[in-house]
């Protein structure tokens, strides 16, 4: 049940309007409309070495952080971001669903015009 980080980064990259950016020297940040929806720590700036941090629904934040291997994300917990600390904290399909939801939560905050430009909204 261990997470495959390469599959997770590929999943994030395939979401509509997603772009990847290297921030803070070693973090792969997946963004939409210039706003982050997932962050993977790396050692070399390319290959993720830690499970991701991502935004969660407010009503799921406490539920997720009560689980072993999931903690409030440093610096971003007040915005309801969580950080996975163990590769076996959840199955791959659940991680993909949570990453897609994070993407959707961030996309909801973008202007309608920008969502249309990114191909998220007709």
From TrEMBL:
Q: Which GO terms describe its molecular function?
A: DNA binding
InterPro entries on file: YjbR, YjbR-like_sf, YjbR/MT2646/Rv2570-like
* Pfam families recorded: YjbR (PF04237)
Q: Which organism is it from?
A: Piscinibacterium candidicorallinum
Q: Which UniProt keywords apply?
A: DNA-binding
- Please state what the protein is called: MmcQ/YjbR family DNA-binding protein
Domain of life of the native organism? Bacteria
